[in-house]
Amino acid sequence: MRAEPLAASRSALERHTDLRYWHRLLPLLAVLACVTRVPSFARPLWNPDEGLLAVQARILAHGGELYETVVDRKPPLVPWLYEAAFTVAGSDSLTSVRVLAVLAQLLTAVLLASLARRRWGDRAGRTAGVLYLLVSVGLNPEDAQAAGFELFILPCTAAAMWCADRRR
């Protein structure tokens, strides 16, 4: 009979430790995600994928149909995301899409940190999240700072790995 309250308190302690871990790590990852994406907001960069996606989004917003009026060889998620961002914030600027890119980077870092933490411990989780954000901007700015397909698919890929690790 005494084992039940002990197990319950241990569970509460684990939850408290888990909350403390994420309360410390999430702000760090959020700041790092913002800092590493500053160049995409600070100076004009031209990336052909961003340009094509912006054109696709504008055509879709004016009644065009994906794969008929607008043709691309990639899945429809990102053109629809651009269209939604433009609908909410206007299509005069890529700022709204670049804000979504920061959020995508943050979500990917959190998922990778969670995955690494579950497998190898707290330090590995912190390292995975931080290193992902630092390494993700290691290419030339025109590619690394672009809000393109790859960046928006990474959270989905990390989420798939996270789910597989938990046998979901």
Which oligomeric form is depicted?
A: single chain
Strand percentage lies at under 5%
Distance linking N and C termini: 33 Å
Q: Round the mean pLDDT to the nearest integer and report it.
A: 89
Helix fraction bin: over 70%
Major beta-sheet overview: none
Question: What does this 3D model show about the protein?
Answer:
The protein is mainly α and 168 residues long. The chain is 76% helix and 0% strand. It contains seven helices and no strands. It has helices spanning 3-42, 48-61, 77-89, 95-120, 122-135, 141-144, 149-165. Helix 4 runs parallel beside helix 7. It is elongated. The relative contact order is 0.14.
Short description:
With 168 residues, the protein is mostly helical.
Lay out the secondary structure.
Layout lengths: L2 H40 L5 H14 L15 H13 L5 H26 L1 H14 L5 H4 L4 H17 L3
State the main characteristics.
single chain, mainly alpha, 76% helix, 168 residues
